[in-house]
Amino acid sequence: MIYECLSSSELSFLIKGSHSKEFFILRGRHQGDPISPFLFDIAAESLLVLFHRESMGNIFRGLQFVSGPFLSHLQYEDDTLVFILTDIDHLLQVKIIMRWFALSS
């Protein structure tokens, strides 16, 4: 269903009050496309699963609040902030996770 939405998008421009001829969008999404938040959620969820799996296995740890949740990362639009201990092994593990994510997405 997502593929159909992405592959069948047509766009036209409004020039001096007249619409241009419609054309297919071959790459990416136009700004404000209603499907963009859903695509972000799919990608963000897969990164969340990778971070959660590694943190549950004590491969790396983020921030643990005294009386609250564990925080491994924050995401907003196209920014990702990852919280790790100041340890080279944790940094290398996050690098591996990000590589998995890049290859899968």
- Strand adjacency order, main sheet: 1-4
Helix share bin: 40-55%
Please give the largest β-sheet: 2 strands, antiparallel
* Rg from Cα: 19 Å
Task: Give the amount of beta strand, in percent.
Answer: 15-25%
Number of strands: 8
Low-confidence stretches: none
> What letter string, H or E per element, gives the SSE order?
HEEEEHEEEEH
Summarize the structure.
By secondary structure, the protein is an alpha+beta fold. It has 3 helices and 8 strands. Helices cover 42% and strands 19% of the residues.
Written overview of the protein:
By secondary structure, the protein is of the alpha+beta class. 42% of the residues lie in helices and 19% in strands. The protein contains three helices and eight strands; from the N terminus they run H-E-E-E-E-H-E-E-E-E-H. The strands form four sheets. It has a two-stranded antiparallel ribbon. A two-stranded antiparallel sheet has the order 2-3. A hairpin with a 2-residue loop joins strand 2 and strand 3 (18-19). Helix 2 runs antiparallel to helix 3. The two termini are 18 Å apart. The mean pLDDT is 76.
Descriptive terms for the model:
alpha+beta, 8 strands, elongated
Task: Give me the secondary-structure topology.
Blueprint: H1 2-7, E1 10-11, E2 14-15, E3 18-19, E4 23-24, H2 36-56, E5 63-64, E6 70-71, E7 73-76, E8 79-82, H3 88-104
Antiparallel strand pairs: 1-4, 2-3, 5-6, 7-8
Helix pairs in contact: 2-3
